[in-house]
Amino acid sequence: MPSTRDRLIDAAFALFEERGFDETTVDDVAARAEVGRTTFFRAFRSKEDVIFPDHDAMLGAVSARLATATAATVEVAVTEAAHVVLAHYLAEGTRAQQRYRLTRSVPALRSREVASLLQYQQVFRTFLHGWTGGTARADLRAELLANAVVTAHNHVLRRWLRETITAGEAEAEFATSMDEVLRIFADPAPSVGGTAVVVLRSDQPVESLLPALREVVARPET
């Protein structure tokens, strides 16, 4: 049997789709769920809170996954932490897609969604700053990577929310997107000191060229 909280959520989403968000009151939701107004406010602070998932719980799960990272598993931790959020929405199924339609049509809900997005970026940014070494360039890379992780996640999530792809395809696209993000931000291969030698064709015997090559290699850099 559904809990009171679940009944309130079901009632709210049904009414929002039937009448519109602004036209639906808390009393309407409580009446549809067959509970009192007081019961509604025990479960939610406002009708907006009925719509959004428990972001505090998800942020906690993301932070917990990142906290287990070691120097060798930072990239895995970032990918799996981002996947925590994707998996939650996919598990919600049509409810998540209903929410998406609502947030597209109600500016106040859209603003709240953007605010929650910034919270996820902050969690990743804080985590990545801890691994950058503290230089200005490294901190910039952490900032850019945090934004890229969230952007890649949301790109795939929105495609599923719009029903452009299936849940299985979303999983596959997420893996590909995260690989691309990490590839872009991978540290470049360290430069190796030494002398570059350009090889040209010559009619002279190799033995006659070796003294000149040795002289070039031994010459100090200027």
From TrEMBL:
DNA-binding recorded as keyword: yes
SUPFAM superfamilies (alphabetical): Homeodomain-like
Domain of life: Bacteria
InterPro entries listed in its UniProt record: DNA-bd_HTH_TetR-type_CS, Homeodomain-like_sf, HTH-type_TetR-like_transc_reg, HTH_TetR, MftR_C
Presence of keyword DNA-binding: yes
Keywords linked to the UniProt accession: DNA-binding
Domain HTH tetR-type stretches: 2-62
Start-end of DNA-binding region: 25-44
Xref: PANTHER family: HTH-TYPE TRANSCRIPTIONAL REGULATOR PKSA, HTH-TYPE TRANSCRIPTIONAL REGULATOR RUTR
Protein name as annotated: TetR family transcriptional regulator
Taxonomic lineage from the root: Bacteria, Bacillati, Actinomycetota, Actinomycetes, Propionibacteriales
